[in-house]
Design a protein that fits this description.
The protein has 498 residues and is an alpha/beta fold. The chain has 2 domains: 283 residues, NAD(P)-binding Rossmann-like Domain (Rossmann fold); 200 residues, N-(1-d-carboxylethyl)-l-norvaline Dehydrogenase, domain 2. Helix content is 46%, strand content 11%. The protein has 21 helices and 13 strands. β4 and β5 form a beta hairpin. α4 crosses α6 and α10 packs antiparallel against α12. The longest helix has 24 residues. Keywords: Oxidoreductase.
Length: 498
Amino acid sequence: MTSAAPISAPVPLSDATLDALPDAVACPTYDRDALTPGIVHIGVGNFHRAHQAWYLHRLMQQGLAQDWAIIGAGVRPYDAAMRDRLRAQDCLTTLIELDPRGSSAEVVGSMIDYLPIEEGNGPLIAQMADPAIRIVALTVTEGGYYIDPVTGGFDADHPDIQHDARTPDRPRTAFGAMIAALRIRRAAGHGPFAAQSCDNLLGNGRILKQTVVSLARLSDPDLADWIEAECSFPNSMVDCIVPATGEAERALAQGFGIADAAPVTHENFRQWVIEDDFCAGRPDWDRVGATLADDVHGFEMMKLRILNAGHQILANAGEILGIETIAGCMEHPGINAFFHKVQRDEIVPHVAPVPGMNACDYVDLVARRFANPSIVDTTRRVAFDGSSRHTGFLLPVVREALAEGSPVEGLALVEALWARMCAGTREDGTIIEPNDPHWDRLCQVAGQARAEPQAWIAQDQIYGDLARNDRFSEAFARWLTLIWHDGTEAALDAYRQS
């Protein structure tokens, strides 16, 4: 590892300045002018650039995958700001690996363009219709797939979906744009592309297929049948802790001698398990550490139920107590003990081993990663969109545990802590800023639940019928009452001693 050293005049990042960067910074060794596109990636956030783009970059460093370069894309107006930042530096990204032993930096060059963000998504549709594009990949967050949170089915009533069904030639959503491009490809005889979700969803390929095919069926049933028969939707499990970028991260890049408007920091761990189901070919990701498998379900279950659920175990308690980072939560004795007890007693029994790893060892691995003090991963980022993350990561375990007669006390306490956090204030009286797409509604119900705990779990769109399960309902009410009466730390201590 190489630690950053102060540089008096950071070099603005661009293709023209790569040779001027300090020797300690690893740069692309391939000719970026010779790259041709093969992938459109929708949702060019930090995680994509630290994960999928990095794997492709490593292949390119070996002289491979030169015809698989990434074209970035977005479908929301706020994506335009990222496009401007990245295009100003030729779509290059500085990745800074944060390790307690020291940090290192490399410049990743596998993305070669970023499409304009336009109403109706014309540029995106045209690019995906190009037969050179063989994979369309997405990182649009767990809440972006128009899923009914209770049934897991397609939410056909959402206004965005209704818009795209009425005006399929000018879609609002990424999925509508994919369908429009596939319509053009079919008409031209170009064949399909593989659609690859890289979001934290159990069966993310299956869910992506559900969304695309169901939306297509609303406007063009014949096209929906063709997509279902011809396109592939590989499942995958993705894993790397990637904090948000702010001034501190830009300063880190400057410390390496790079003026990067959008650098990305990440931990010294990555994992990508991919179902090998690509209808139009794929890069050889397995040459650079990805795992190709016939079935990724076990890997997905382990990661979502231990790491992603574990994030929620930590972040809600940490936010209430004013602890700013996940590493800080792991340093707090009460939260740390809470994390380990819930994992050991209530989650691990519902996680099967995968090749090379059992659930208990994975908990230990995740705990070490969460405790890395070099990763400034904020509780606010991790707690964001709890209405999707609790329904996706925690409540399936609750239902399974209830069905099997397994313990749920700690899981009920996790939900009570989320309800307390959504009241919008910390225990020191400071304000928790809105942090969920449904924040106003959650705050209102959380305020009501202070006196009537059942009001929180009566939110059927989140909890379904769990409010009618006496064991879970009684545990939840008891914990929320204790949190409001005696405080979060008292509740954590009571659970630890139970």
